[in-house]
From TrEMBL:
Coarse class of the protein's main subcellular location: mitochondrion
Organism: Nyssa sinensis
Family stated for the protein in its record: Belongs to the mitochondrial carrier (TC 2.A.29) family.
Presence of keyword Transport: yes
Compartment(s) where it occurs, according to its Swiss-Prot or TrEMBL record: Mitochondrion inner membrane
Name under which the protein is recorded: Mitochondrial carrier protein
Pfam families named in the record: Mito_carr
Membrane topology according to the record: Multi-pass membrane protein
GO process annotations (BP): transmembrane transport
Keyword terms: Membrane, Mitochondrion, Mitochondrion inner membrane, Repeat, Transmembrane, Transmembrane helix, Transport
Residue ranges of Solcar repeats: 40-127, 143-231, 246-347
Cellular component GO terms, alphabetical: mitochondrial inner membrane
């Protein structure tokens, strides 16, 4: 597949791209901190962001798992018909542990993903702003929403490529049930099994729709969040802003709006990514249906073929399976992440604000 051919090059250059961006931004900046001080500041920021991501994802883990199960379930053997019914079914059949299945892998993925994403966004923003000021000749110019979208897209692509194997494993661990013929015992076992049975390229199945989906999702998140904050501070509508500082609730509203728009636009690509990740897993049909008897077609030749088969066999609405539980978790996830980040930031004395 074309996506598989470019995976190696993308993964190979992801890290070098980050450091190139960092170096260029450092040269363009007005002053440079001592290496040890800069490293400590960045490390503290990444720890705060990682803890916030882990806590927020754990809080909405049941909804995250239900979303994935809705995305990949067999249309001819429906077990999950909605958010409330789906959560009740998981609780009844798998208990408390079933609600959080795959969350350990998710948290393990979130920490490096958040680290790479936010670091990349900060450095890409600095470099893009420097280039923009050089081009316009205006040293006081600020990033436009479109430029922020570009910086967010770069950050999302790099982070997704760097941590994609963990995302694939998380999807499989989340989908499997007690009735699955083969059980992945954990992250390491799942990675080794996929490598042994399906080959290294299998770790990047569904990478192309993931990267394409990341562009509007992460890009819109950053662009809308920062643009909304700037607009509120400058226009001060309805008396929401005092002394050029947004309240916690106003920031949460900005984040919720940005997250909702971004995930709605990118959601169909997320569904296709999940389905492509199941390709090659010989027990995927049994896992998805839960009865070991019914079979579901999981053979796709690529992203376009996956889109075509999904819409033809299940209708356009199938591209938004699991959207409700995904939307329900957006607001509390952002709220918890924000509060946790602020607490950890204060404890560690973080100087640089990743989200701002």
């Amino acid at each position: 597949m074309a996506s598989e051919d470019v995976v190696g090059k993308t993964s190979e250059t992801a890290v070098s791209t980050i450091f190139n961006l960092a170096e260029e931004a450092k040269i363009a900046s007005e002053g440079v901190k001592a290496p040890s001080h800069a490293f400590l500041s960045i490390s503290k920021s990444l720890v705060a962001g990682g803890v916030a991501g882990g806590v927020s994802r754990s809080a909405v883990a049941p909804l995250e798992r239900l979303k994935i199960l809705l995305q990949v379930q067999n249309p001819h053997s429906i077990k999950y018909s909605g958010t409330i019914q789906g959560l009740k079914y998981i609780w009844r059949t798998e208990g408390f542990r079933g609600m959080f299945k795959g969350n350990g892998t998710n948290c393990a993925r979130i920490i490096p993903n958040s680290a790479v994403k936010f670091f990349s966004y900060e450095e890409a923003s600095k470099r893009i702003l420097w280039l923009y000021r050089q081009q316009t000749g205006n040293e006081d110019a600020e990033l436009t929403p479109l430029l922020r979208l570009g910086a967010g897209a770069c950050a999302g692509i790099i982070a997704m490529s760097a941590t994609y194997p963990m995302d694939l494993v998380r999807g499989r661990l989340t989908v499997q049930t007690e009735k699955s013929p083969q059980q992945y015992r954990g992250i390491a076992h799942a990675l080794s099994t996929v490598l042994r049975e399906e080959g290294p390229r299998a770790l990047y199945k569904g990478w192309l729709p993931s990267v394409i989906g990341v562009i509007p999702y992460v890009g819109l998140n950053f662009a809308m969040y920062e643009s909304l904050k700037d607009w509120l501070i400058k226009s001060r509508p309805f008396g929401l802003v005092e002394d050029s500082e947004l309240s916690v609730m106003t920031k949460l509203a900005c984040g919720a709006a940005a997250g909702t728009v971004g995930q709605t636009v990118a959601y169909p690509l997320d569904v296709i990514r999940r389905r492509m990740q199941m390709v090659g897993w010989k027990d995927a049909a049994s896992v998805v249906t839960g009865d070991g008897k019914s079979k579901v077609s999981l053979e796709y030749t690529g992203m376009v073929d996956a889109f075509r088969k999904t819409v033809r066999l299940e209708g356009f609405g199938a591209l938004y399976k699991g959207l409700v539980p995904n939307s329900v978790k957006v607001v509390p996830s952002i709220a918890i992440a924000f509060v946790t980040y602020e607490v950890v930031k204060d404890i560690l004395g973080v100087e640089m604000r990743i989200s701002d």
